Amino acid sequence: MAVPFYYIHRNLRARRVTTLLTIGGMALVVFVFATMRMLAEGIKQTLVDTGRGDNVMVIRRSAETEVQSSVEREQAAIVESLPHIAQGAAGERFASKELLVLLVLAKRESGKPSNVTIRGLSTPGLRLRPQVRVVQGRMFRPGTSEIIAGVKIAQSFSGTGLGERIRLGGREWTVVGLFDAGNSGFGSEIWGDVDQLMQAFRRNAYSSVIFRLADRHSFESVQLRINKDPRLTLEAKPEIEFYAEQSEVMSNFLTILGTTLSITFAIGAVLGAMITMYSSVAERTSEIATLRALGFRRRDILSAFITESCLLGLVGGTLGILLASLMQTVSVSTMNWQTFAELSFDFTLTPAIVMESLVFALVMGLAGGLLPALRAARLRIAEALRYA
Protein backbone atom coordinates (compact mmCIF):
# COMPACT_ATOMS: atom_id res chain seq x y z
CA MET A 1 0.00 0.00 0.00
CA ALA A 2 1.14 3.54 -0.78
CA VAL A 3 2.16 6.06 1.86
CA PRO A 4 -0.63 8.72 2.16
CA PHE A 5 0.13 12.02 0.42
CA TYR A 6 -0.82 14.08 3.49
CA TYR A 7 2.08 12.41 5.32
CA ILE A 8 4.50 13.72 2.65
CA HIS A 9 2.91 17.18 2.77
CA ARG A 10 3.11 17.26 6.59
CA ASN A 11 6.81 16.42 6.57
CA LEU A 12 7.58 19.23 4.11
CA ARG A 13 5.67 21.71 6.27
CA ALA A 14 7.44 20.51 9.41
CA ARG A 15 10.80 21.59 7.94
CA ARG A 16 9.75 24.97 6.57
CA VAL A 17 13.16 26.64 6.50
CA THR A 18 15.07 23.89 4.70
CA THR A 19 12.11 23.26 2.41
CA LEU A 20 11.88 26.94 1.42
CA LEU A 21 15.64 27.19 0.89
CA THR A 22 15.62 24.11 -1.35
CA ILE A 23 12.63 25.40 -3.33
CA GLY A 24 14.29 28.80 -3.68
CA GLY A 25 17.51 27.28 -5.01
CA MET A 26 15.64 25.23 -7.59
CA ALA A 27 13.52 28.24 -8.56
CA LEU A 28 16.63 30.31 -9.31
CA VAL A 29 18.09 27.54 -11.46
CA VAL A 30 14.84 27.17 -13.41
CA PHE A 31 14.65 30.97 -13.74
CA VAL A 32 18.09 31.02 -15.40
CA PHE A 33 17.22 28.07 -17.63
CA ALA A 34 13.86 29.51 -18.73
CA THR A 35 15.20 33.05 -19.20
CA MET A 36 18.02 31.93 -21.50
CA ARG A 37 15.57 29.80 -23.51
CA MET A 38 13.21 32.80 -23.71
CA LEU A 39 16.08 34.96 -24.92
CA ALA A 40 16.95 32.53 -27.70
CA GLU A 41 13.27 32.13 -28.63
CA GLY A 42 12.80 35.91 -28.70
CA ILE A 43 15.64 36.32 -31.18
CA LYS A 44 14.38 33.46 -33.30
CA GLN A 45 10.80 34.70 -33.44
CA THR A 46 11.88 38.29 -34.14
CA LEU A 47 13.87 37.24 -37.18
CA VAL A 48 11.37 34.63 -38.38
CA ASP A 49 8.54 37.19 -38.12
CA THR A 50 10.63 39.48 -40.32
CA GLY A 51 9.97 37.28 -43.35
CA ARG A 52 6.81 36.27 -45.23
CA GLY A 53 6.09 32.91 -46.79
CA ASP A 54 5.17 34.36 -50.21
CA ASN A 55 8.15 36.74 -50.45
CA VAL A 56 11.40 35.68 -52.11
CA MET A 57 14.84 37.04 -51.22
CA VAL A 58 17.45 37.09 -53.99
CA ILE A 59 21.09 37.66 -53.00
CA ARG A 60 24.55 36.87 -54.36
CA ARG A 61 25.29 33.16 -54.43
CA SER A 62 27.09 31.96 -51.27
CA ALA A 63 26.42 35.25 -49.43
CA GLU A 64 25.00 34.60 -45.96
CA THR A 65 23.61 38.10 -45.33
CA GLU A 66 22.44 41.09 -47.34
CA VAL A 67 25.46 43.06 -46.12
CA GLN A 68 27.76 40.53 -47.82
CA SER A 69 25.68 40.41 -50.99
CA SER A 70 26.03 42.37 -54.22
CA VAL A 71 23.45 42.34 -57.03
CA GLU A 72 24.43 44.23 -60.20
CA ARG A 73 21.88 46.58 -61.76
CA GLU A 74 21.58 44.40 -64.87
CA GLN A 75 20.99 41.32 -62.73
CA ALA A 76 18.39 43.13 -60.64
CA ALA A 77 16.54 44.12 -63.81
CA ILE A 78 16.47 40.49 -64.98
CA VAL A 79 15.09 39.30 -61.64
CA GLU A 80 12.53 42.11 -61.63
CA SER A 81 11.21 40.98 -65.02
CA LEU A 82 10.48 37.39 -63.96
CA PRO A 83 6.92 36.34 -64.87
CA HIS A 84 6.28 34.79 -61.46
CA ILE A 85 6.16 38.16 -59.66
CA ALA A 86 2.79 39.34 -58.33
CA GLN A 87 1.26 42.49 -59.80
CA GLY A 88 -1.08 45.14 -58.46
CA ALA A 89 -4.34 46.35 -59.98
CA ALA A 90 -2.50 49.05 -61.93
CA GLY A 91 0.03 46.56 -63.27
CA GLU A 92 2.83 47.52 -60.88
CA ARG A 93 5.16 44.67 -59.96
CA PHE A 94 5.68 43.79 -56.30
CA ALA A 95 9.47 43.78 -56.43
CA SER A 96 11.91 45.95 -54.51
CA LYS A 97 15.60 46.49 -55.30
CA GLU A 98 17.26 47.16 -51.98
CA LEU A 99 20.50 48.31 -50.43
CA LEU A 100 21.69 47.48 -46.92
CA VAL A 101 24.40 49.55 -45.24
CA LEU A 102 25.82 49.34 -41.72
CA LEU A 103 26.21 52.67 -39.92
CA VAL A 104 27.78 53.60 -36.61
CA LEU A 105 25.50 55.89 -34.55
CA ALA A 106 25.74 57.17 -31.00
CA LYS A 107 23.39 55.97 -28.26
CA ARG A 108 21.14 58.66 -26.79
CA GLU A 109 21.88 57.94 -23.15
CA SER A 110 25.51 56.84 -23.13
CA GLY A 111 26.85 58.37 -26.35
CA LYS A 112 28.55 55.04 -27.10
CA PRO A 113 28.71 54.00 -30.77
CA SER A 114 26.79 50.99 -32.06
CA ASN A 115 26.00 49.52 -35.49
CA VAL A 116 22.63 50.31 -37.08
CA THR A 117 21.22 49.07 -40.38
CA ILE A 118 19.94 51.52 -42.97
CA ARG A 119 17.88 49.98 -45.77
CA GLY A 120 17.24 51.55 -49.15
CA LEU A 121 13.89 50.55 -50.67
CA SER A 122 12.21 50.80 -54.02
CA THR A 123 8.64 52.13 -54.05
CA PRO A 124 6.98 48.66 -53.63
CA GLY A 125 9.20 47.87 -50.64
CA LEU A 126 6.68 48.89 -47.99
CA ARG A 127 3.88 46.89 -49.62
CA LEU A 128 6.03 43.77 -49.34
CA ARG A 129 6.06 44.22 -45.54
CA PRO A 130 2.45 44.59 -44.39
CA GLN A 131 3.55 44.18 -40.76
CA VAL A 132 5.29 47.56 -41.00
CA ARG A 133 3.19 50.69 -40.50
CA VAL A 134 4.10 54.33 -40.07
CA VAL A 135 2.84 55.40 -36.63
CA GLN A 136 4.18 58.97 -36.51
CA GLY A 137 4.85 61.41 -39.33
CA ARG A 138 4.71 60.05 -42.88
CA MET A 139 6.49 57.81 -45.38
CA PHE A 140 9.62 59.18 -47.05
CA ARG A 141 9.20 60.61 -50.57
CA PRO A 142 11.19 58.86 -53.32
CA GLY A 143 13.97 60.99 -54.78
CA THR A 144 14.49 63.02 -51.59
CA SER A 145 16.87 62.95 -48.61
CA GLU A 146 14.15 61.76 -46.30
CA ILE A 147 14.24 58.71 -44.05
CA ILE A 148 12.00 56.93 -41.59
CA ALA A 149 13.21 55.08 -38.50
CA GLY A 150 11.94 52.19 -36.43
CA VAL A 151 10.42 53.29 -33.13
CA LYS A 152 13.00 51.33 -31.15
CA ILE A 153 15.84 52.94 -33.11
CA ALA A 154 14.40 56.43 -32.54
CA GLN A 155 14.26 55.77 -28.81
CA SER A 156 17.82 54.50 -28.62
CA PHE A 157 19.96 56.53 -31.06
CA SER A 158 20.75 60.22 -31.37
CA GLY A 159 19.48 62.04 -34.46
CA THR A 160 16.87 59.43 -35.37
CA GLY A 161 13.81 60.99 -33.70
CA LEU A 162 10.91 62.46 -35.64
CA GLY A 163 11.94 65.80 -37.20
CA GLU A 164 15.61 65.36 -36.35
CA ARG A 165 18.38 65.59 -38.94
CA ILE A 166 21.32 63.26 -39.25
CA ARG A 167 24.37 63.21 -41.49
CA LEU A 168 24.80 59.95 -43.42
CA GLY A 169 27.07 59.33 -46.40
CA GLY A 170 28.13 62.97 -46.59
CA ARG A 171 24.54 64.22 -46.82
CA GLU A 172 21.96 65.59 -44.38
CA TRP A 173 18.87 63.43 -43.98
CA THR A 174 15.61 64.36 -42.30
CA VAL A 175 13.60 61.85 -40.26
CA VAL A 176 10.02 62.39 -41.50
CA GLY A 177 8.38 59.35 -39.92
CA LEU A 178 8.61 56.60 -37.34
CA PHE A 179 7.37 53.09 -38.05
CA ASP A 180 6.34 50.11 -35.97
CA ALA A 181 7.34 46.71 -37.34
CA GLY A 182 5.59 44.53 -34.77
CA ASN A 183 7.91 41.81 -33.49
CA SER A 184 10.00 41.76 -36.68
CA GLY A 185 13.63 42.77 -37.06
CA PHE A 186 12.68 45.66 -39.36
CA GLY A 187 11.97 47.69 -36.23
CA SER A 188 15.76 47.90 -35.73
CA GLU A 189 16.34 49.58 -39.12
CA ILE A 190 16.27 52.99 -40.81
CA TRP A 191 14.63 53.19 -44.25
CA GLY A 192 15.11 55.56 -47.17
CA ASP A 193 14.96 55.76 -50.97
CA VAL A 194 17.33 53.19 -52.50
CA ASP A 195 18.55 55.39 -55.37
CA GLN A 196 19.34 58.31 -53.06
CA LEU A 197 21.17 56.08 -50.60
CA MET A 198 23.20 54.46 -53.38
CA GLN A 199 24.34 57.92 -54.51
CA ALA A 200 25.14 59.02 -50.96
CA PHE A 201 27.17 55.91 -50.14
CA ARG A 202 28.68 55.64 -53.65
CA ARG A 203 27.36 52.15 -54.28
CA ASN A 204 26.98 50.78 -57.82
CA ALA A 205 25.14 47.57 -56.90
CA TYR A 206 22.15 46.58 -54.81
CA SER A 207 22.34 44.23 -51.86
CA SER A 208 19.25 42.20 -52.72
CA VAL A 209 16.02 41.99 -54.67
CA ILE A 210 12.83 41.06 -52.81
CA PHE A 211 9.62 40.18 -54.60
CA ARG A 212 6.25 38.61 -53.90
CA LEU A 213 5.21 35.47 -55.75
CA ALA A 214 1.96 35.52 -57.70
CA ASP A 215 1.62 31.89 -56.64
CA ARG A 216 3.56 30.84 -53.56
CA HIS A 217 3.77 27.29 -54.95
CA SER A 218 5.87 28.51 -57.89
CA PHE A 219 9.02 29.09 -55.83
CA GLU A 220 10.82 26.02 -57.18
CA SER A 221 10.26 27.22 -60.75
CA VAL A 222 11.66 30.64 -59.86
CA GLN A 223 14.63 29.10 -58.10
CA LEU A 224 15.39 26.81 -61.06
CA ARG A 225 15.14 29.69 -63.54
CA ILE A 226 17.54 31.87 -61.52
CA ASN A 227 20.01 29.01 -61.04
CA LYS A 228 20.08 28.13 -64.74
CA ASP A 229 20.45 31.69 -66.05
CA PRO A 230 24.18 32.13 -66.92
CA ARG A 231 23.87 35.90 -66.49
CA LEU A 232 22.98 35.53 -62.82
CA THR A 233 25.33 34.59 -60.01
CA LEU A 234 22.44 34.76 -57.57
CA GLU A 235 20.37 32.47 -55.41
CA ALA A 236 16.76 32.71 -54.29
CA LYS A 237 15.38 31.77 -50.87
CA PRO A 238 11.94 32.11 -49.29
CA GLU A 239 12.19 35.26 -47.19
CA ILE A 240 10.99 33.50 -44.05
CA GLU A 241 13.71 30.83 -44.49
CA PHE A 242 16.38 33.47 -45.10
CA TYR A 243 15.64 35.29 -41.84
CA ALA A 244 15.29 32.03 -39.91
CA GLU A 245 18.86 31.19 -40.91
CA GLN A 246 19.96 34.60 -39.58
CA SER A 247 18.85 33.57 -36.10
CA GLU A 248 20.57 30.19 -35.96
CA VAL A 249 24.07 31.19 -34.79
CA MET A 250 22.94 33.47 -31.98
CA SER A 251 19.99 31.33 -30.93
CA ASN A 252 22.13 28.17 -30.75
CA PHE A 253 24.84 29.98 -28.80
CA LEU A 254 22.36 31.27 -26.22
CA THR A 255 20.75 27.84 -25.92
CA ILE A 256 24.12 26.17 -25.30
CA LEU A 257 25.19 28.92 -22.89
CA GLY A 258 21.90 28.75 -20.98
CA THR A 259 22.01 24.97 -20.75
CA THR A 260 25.62 25.01 -19.53
CA LEU A 261 24.90 27.63 -16.86
CA SER A 262 21.74 25.84 -15.79
CA ILE A 263 23.50 22.48 -15.42
CA THR A 264 26.27 24.15 -13.39
CA PHE A 265 23.78 25.83 -11.07
CA ALA A 266 21.64 22.68 -11.01
CA ILE A 267 24.48 20.73 -9.41
CA GLY A 268 24.30 23.09 -6.42
CA ALA A 269 20.51 22.85 -6.30
CA VAL A 270 20.63 19.04 -6.46
CA LEU A 271 23.16 18.95 -3.61
CA GLY A 272 20.88 21.22 -1.60
CA ALA A 273 17.91 18.94 -2.22
CA MET A 274 20.03 15.91 -1.34
CA ILE A 275 21.13 17.45 1.96
CA THR A 276 17.51 18.32 2.75
CA MET A 277 16.33 14.79 2.03
CA TYR A 278 19.22 13.12 3.93
CA SER A 279 18.36 15.34 6.88
CA SER A 280 14.74 14.28 6.56
CA VAL A 281 15.72 10.60 6.59
CA ALA A 282 17.88 11.09 9.70
CA GLU A 283 15.09 12.92 11.56
CA ARG A 284 12.40 10.42 10.62
CA THR A 285 14.20 7.12 11.20
CA SER A 286 11.72 6.04 13.89
CA GLU A 287 8.78 7.04 11.65
CA ILE A 288 10.20 4.98 8.80
CA ALA A 289 10.54 1.99 11.15
CA THR A 290 6.95 2.45 12.30
CA LEU A 291 5.71 2.58 8.71
CA ARG A 292 7.63 -0.61 7.92
CA ALA A 293 6.20 -2.31 11.05
CA LEU A 294 2.69 -1.32 9.91
CA GLY A 295 3.19 -3.21 6.68
CA PHE A 296 4.48 -0.62 4.25
CA ARG A 297 7.01 -2.18 1.88
CA ARG A 298 10.45 -0.84 0.95
CA ARG A 299 9.19 0.39 -2.42
CA ASP A 300 6.40 2.33 -0.68
CA ILE A 301 9.00 4.15 1.42
CA LEU A 302 11.16 4.70 -1.68
CA SER A 303 8.28 6.17 -3.70
CA ALA A 304 7.22 8.41 -0.79
CA PHE A 305 10.65 10.02 -0.47
CA ILE A 306 11.06 10.35 -4.24
CA THR A 307 7.59 11.94 -4.45
CA GLU A 308 8.59 14.36 -1.71
CA SER A 309 11.77 15.36 -3.57
CA CYS A 310 10.00 15.69 -6.93
CA LEU A 311 7.38 17.86 -5.25
CA LEU A 312 10.15 20.20 -4.12
CA GLY A 313 11.39 20.34 -7.71
CA LEU A 314 7.91 20.93 -9.12
CA VAL A 315 7.13 23.80 -6.73
CA GLY A 316 10.58 25.32 -7.34
CA GLY A 317 10.16 24.94 -11.08
CA THR A 318 6.73 26.58 -11.06
CA LEU A 319 8.06 29.50 -9.03
CA GLY A 320 11.04 29.85 -11.40
CA ILE A 321 8.74 29.93 -14.45
CA LEU A 322 6.54 32.58 -12.82
CA LEU A 323 9.62 34.73 -12.19
CA ALA A 324 10.85 34.18 -15.75
CA SER A 325 7.44 35.17 -17.17
CA LEU A 326 7.95 38.68 -15.76
CA MET A 327 10.83 39.09 -18.24
CA GLN A 328 8.27 39.25 -21.07
CA THR A 329 7.75 42.91 -20.18
CA VAL A 330 11.44 43.65 -20.87
CA SER A 331 12.74 44.65 -24.31
CA VAL A 332 16.46 44.23 -24.92
CA SER A 333 18.87 44.90 -27.77
CA THR A 334 22.08 43.19 -28.77
CA MET A 335 24.28 42.75 -31.81
CA ASN A 336 23.26 40.16 -34.37
CA TRP A 337 26.55 38.34 -34.95
CA GLN A 338 25.71 37.52 -38.56
CA THR A 339 24.79 41.05 -39.67
CA PHE A 340 26.82 42.92 -37.00
CA ALA A 341 23.90 45.30 -36.54
CA GLU A 342 21.90 46.03 -33.40
CA LEU A 343 18.74 43.97 -33.01
CA SER A 344 15.92 44.71 -30.57
CA PHE A 345 13.70 41.89 -29.33
CA ASP A 346 11.56 40.70 -26.42
CA PHE A 347 11.87 37.69 -24.12
CA THR A 348 9.37 35.11 -25.41
CA LEU A 349 7.81 32.44 -23.19
CA THR A 350 6.24 29.52 -25.06
CA PRO A 351 4.40 26.37 -23.87
CA ALA A 352 7.43 24.34 -24.98
CA ILE A 353 9.74 26.37 -22.72
CA VAL A 354 7.32 25.93 -19.80
CA MET A 355 7.28 22.15 -20.29
CA GLU A 356 11.08 21.96 -20.68
CA SER A 357 11.56 23.98 -17.50
CA LEU A 358 9.17 21.81 -15.48
CA VAL A 359 10.85 18.62 -16.72
CA PHE A 360 14.24 20.14 -15.82
CA ALA A 361 12.96 20.94 -12.33
CA LEU A 362 11.54 17.43 -11.85
CA VAL A 363 14.85 15.89 -12.95
CA MET A 364 16.63 18.04 -10.35
CA GLY A 365 14.18 16.90 -7.69
CA LEU A 366 14.56 13.25 -8.70
CA ALA A 367 18.37 13.49 -8.73
CA GLY A 368 18.41 15.14 -5.32
CA GLY A 369 16.06 12.65 -3.70
CA LEU A 370 17.04 9.33 -5.21
CA LEU A 371 20.00 8.43 -2.95
CA PRO A 372 18.29 9.57 0.30
CA ALA A 373 15.17 7.64 -0.75
CA LEU A 374 17.24 4.50 -1.32
CA ARG A 375 18.79 4.90 2.13
CA ALA A 376 15.37 5.28 3.73
CA ALA A 377 14.02 2.22 1.92
CA ARG A 378 16.99 0.07 3.01
CA LEU A 379 16.68 0.82 6.75
CA ARG A 380 16.08 -2.32 8.76
CA ILE A 381 13.11 -2.25 11.14
CA ALA A 382 15.05 -3.53 14.17
CA GLU A 383 17.92 -1.10 13.63
CA ALA A 384 15.63 1.85 13.00
CA LEU A 385 13.48 1.17 16.10
CA ARG A 386 16.48 1.74 18.34
CA TYR A 387 16.12 5.45 17.54
CA ALA A 388 12.45 5.46 18.61
Class of secondary structure makeup: alpha+beta
Overall number of structural domains: 2
Radius of gyration: 30 Å
- Number of H- or I-type helical stretches: 11
List the secondary-structure elements in sequence, H or E: HHEHEEEEHEEEHEHEHHHEEHH
N-end to C-end Cα span? 23 Å
Q: Profile the largest sheet.
A: 10 strands, mixed
Question: Your description of this structure?
Answer:
The structure is a single chain. This protein has 388 residues and is an alpha+beta fold. The protein has 2 domains: 184 residues, no CATH class; 171 residues, no CATH class. It is built from 11 helices and 12 strands. Helix 1 packs across helix 9, helix 2 crosses helix 9 and helix 2 runs antiparallel to helix 10. The radius of gyration is 30 Å and the shape is elongated. 43% of the residues are buried.
Brief summary:
The chain is of the alpha+beta class and 388 residues long.
Helix and strand layout, with pairings?
Elements: H1 5-14, H2 16-48, E1 55-60, H3 73-80, E2 95-106, E3 113-121, E4 133-137, E5 146-150, H4 151-156, E6 165-168, E7 171-180, E8 189-193, H5 194-200, E9 208-212, H6 219-228, E10 234-238, H7 239-283, H8 285-293, H9 298-325, E11 331-336, E12 341-346, H10 351-378, H11 381-385
Parallel strand pairs: 3-8, 5-7
Antiparallel strand pairs: 1-9, 1-10, 2-3, 2-9, 4-7, 5-8, 6-7, 11-12
Helix pairs in contact: 1-9, 2-7, 2-9, 2-10, 7-10, 9-10
List keywords for this structure.
388 residues, two-stranded antiparallel ribbon, alpha+beta, 49% helix, single chain, 2 domains, ten-stranded mixed sheet
